[in-house]
Design a protein that fits this description.
single chain; dihydroneopterin aldolase activity; 11 strands; alpha+beta; kinase activity; about 270 residues
């Protein structure tokens, strides 16, 4: 189901943002509109203010954020505000922000300039694997490291299972698992963080499908279907790998593959035939 919306329109804030030094010193008027996506069902049934997002408090939050920071670009103001709202306001799933600058110093007759962005919490599923060193401690440390990434929260973690090696079979068994996380990071940003955690765990990319201290792969990212030079989402081989599907089934049996249309349970059943 689509989330409900709470709207704040044309909130006027006097703040100090702009490229020119005088804008940072003298300040000017900004006009902010926000669409907050949340679930208002419980508030609608109970008539309790605490069951929804308080638009008065949200308006005060926006005002305080713009007044307490100074940035050159509207893009930075909008990005920072959206991030802080998603992190700080309970129940906020997605937010659309538009920031207008009526007094933009461009030397031409215009009504206003503005920046509008949309940001939201994303759900990603990450596969973890290790077959070098103390694999259990390495995977547990990786889970903690993922949870410590800024604006990222680990929601569920599967049990770790021992599985035979895949591809290059002349190597020790692996310890594998999967986890679910919520993040504000985009896929490439998340991948960069995964690579950092792998490197900090001593990962060296020498032999394809060879032994490794830590392997972290993005399996799903929302229902995104995308391919770049550095990643493929959903993971291109995940439906062929029991060591991915078995722990993933534990935490998300009904997650549906956006390309093949099958749930994790159905893909695992197909693999076991």
């Amino acid at each position: 189901m689509k989330p409900d919306k709470i709207k704040i329109e044309d909130l006027e804030v006097f703040a100090n943002h702009g490229v020119f030094p005088e804008e940072n010193v003298l300040g000017q008027k900004f006009v902010v509109s926000a669409v907050m996506y949340t679930d208002t069902r419980r508030a609608g049934l109970t008539d309790e203010l605490t069951a929804s997002i308080h638009y008065g408090e949200a308006s005060a939050f926006i005002t305080e954020y713009l007044k307490s920071h100074t940035f050159k670009l509207l893009e930075k103001v909008a990005e920072g505000l959206a991030e802080e709202m998603l992190v700080r306001i309970a129940g906020l799933q997605k937010v659309q922000i538009e920031i207008k600058k009526p007094w933009a110093p461009v030397g031409l007759p215009l009504k206003t300039v503005s920046v509008e962005i949309e940001r939201e919490w994303h759900t990603a599923y990450i596969a973890l694997g290790s077959n070098m060193g103390d694999s259990r401690s390495i995977l547990e440390a990786a889970v903690q490291a993922l949870d410590e990434i800024k604006n990222t929260k680990v929601e569920k973690v599967s049990t770790f299972i021992t599985t035979p090696p895949y591809g290059v079979t002349d190597q020790p068994d692996f310890l594998n698992g999967c986890l679910k996380l919520s993040t504000l990071l985009y896929p490439e940003e998340l991948l960069k963080e995964l690579n950092r955690i792998e490197k900090e765990a001593g990962r060296e990319r020498i032999i394809h499908w060879g032994p490794r201290t830590l392997d972290l792969d993005i399996i799903f990212y929302d229902d995104l279907v995308a391919e770049t030079d550095t990643l493929c989402i959903p993971h291109v081989e995940m439906h062929k790998r029991a060591f991915v599907l078995e722990p993933l089934h534990e935490i998300a049996p009904y997650k549906r593959h956006p390309v093949y249309g099958k749930t994790v349970r159905e893909m695992l059943e197909d693999l076991r035939k």
